[in-house]
Amino acid sequence: MVRQGKFVLSQFSAKPDKDEVLDELQWRHYVVYWSALYAAQNTEICRKNYAECGVCDGLTIFYALSAAATATNDPQAFLYDAWEGMKSEHLLPSELSSAGAYSYLSIEQTRKNLMGYRDTLIFNKGFLPDSLQSSNNPETIVWLHIDLNSAIPTEESLKYFYDKLAQGGVVLLDDYGWADFTDTKRVVDRFFMNKEASLLQLPTGQAVAFKR
Predict the structure, then answer these.
(1) Which of 58, 88, 147, 151 has its CA 20 to 30 A from that of 52?
(2) Domain membership of residue 198 as a residue range
């Protein structure tokens, strides 16, 4: 799909060899695929809703829904992203260099990339956590992916969605083990300190939590 121009990786537009990019990310996407499959197979609720905070071009949710479709009928995904540049008011002082990042994103392009899953997607455009007040939100979820590159929206997304997560469900965090995201790791660790969940840091920089 990438080679044929049916899936545009605008996040990696500066890298001409997209095959190399995908090869570099294959372990990350293996974790995405496996965790999404695990969530479908190990939760007892009938409706398998997936939620992603920080969608970008749609690459992660593409892998997640590919996995979910093998284990359940009609999985549904609730997608949250501003599809605009990051705002300084949502960033900690240590993160201010990221202000304006991702301004190249386009919700229209993401819709095109995910056309094969269009009937299962609900797009919620806006800056988290403020957009949650007016979004089309799920009552329950089995899988939550957070890739917001900032601590405050990450923490608020966890607070909002965790109670909606079914027992046996999965939280997958993208920005946990990297040196640039120590503030995000700090708020995540604080959040899970008193939760009935097991948090595992992975060599990919991700972390995954299983709700017991």
Answers:
(1) 88
(2) 26-211
